[in-house]
Amino acid sequence: MIPSILLLLGTYILFLFWLIKGVTEEDVPISSNNALEVRISLIVPFRDEEKNAKEFLEKIKKQRIDPNFFEVILIDDHSTDNTLSIINAYIHKLNLTNISVLNLGDSTGKKNAVNLGVQNAQYELIVQTDMDCQFGNDYLANLQNLHDAKKADLYILPVFIPFSSDPFSAIFQSIEFSALQAVAFGMALNRHPILCSAANLLYKKDVFEKSLQIRTDDVTSGDDIFFLHAAKKLNFNVVAVLSPKYLVETQPKPSLMEFIDQRARWAGKNRKVKDPNYLLVMALVGMVNVSLILLAFLHFKFFLVVALFKTIVERMLLNQFTFRIDKSYSSPLVLLFGFFYPFYIIGIGIYSQVTSPKWKNRSVEF
Fold first, then answer.
1. Which of 226, 230, 346, 358 could form a disulfide with 211 if both were Cys (CB 3.0 to 4.6 A apart)?
2. pTM of the predicted model, to two decimals?
């Protein structure tokens, strides 16, 4: 059995080096003088975001772009707190005339909120993010330049969870999410996109609308990967751009249970995914981690050696990703993460199959 585990691990290590190659070779787009002709609709679905609403609107106010060249569409998914009153008060206080607030009515869920936002967008180019996200004052202007230079149909853009020293769950969330982003960009920059984040997504309105015509998923939560896979199937031009100019930062989940439920929601979507490249990568990662757990029981000292080697190569990929967005990890917990990860990922997979994870006091259906 051990030779088979080593063969599988060798395949995984080669895969990691291939991802590193992709992350390393990303090109930097050059803008032209026609960027001001690009107009943007910023779509933000939200539910119970009273803690983030004020800061988000202030960030919109600080954007260094003519307000006549973008609009903001906020879609309320039946908030139960004071988010709406805060939004309305600050729209008036900050004189934000290019913001509209929509209500889902009888519908629920982030997927329906995004659909409603796209339907009401008046511009062809759409930026999608979340209200708990932060971005630079030139974020929208940079996206103008990006689209003017690339003229693609769908853009995969970077997201980062800031690294903090406490609590441990926040540290783990940051490292784990960056690992996912590293895989996403490694695949996409090697021309095989399989993952993206709805916290930072740029696309054409007609691409989204055409993707809905062939999609068969009925997941009520966010549906970013289903949109991506549909766009690929329709042969739209999907590009990934890895630069701090287009970076969005989001906060870690405040509790360990909220984080586990989020990851279980993500894992639960796998049963709906049909993209062969995505399934192949998930199968490889799953088999490697199951094999490492078996190895830990069969030969623990050998497990430590193998896990250390695997973790070192994974750290190389993580370092390359964070370098490209001007971030870094210095904590020794990054190495410990590699030893703990096999047990974590298999545990999340099992949890997603035996429970109905929640999102803001709602059960999510797959």
1. 230
2. 0.93
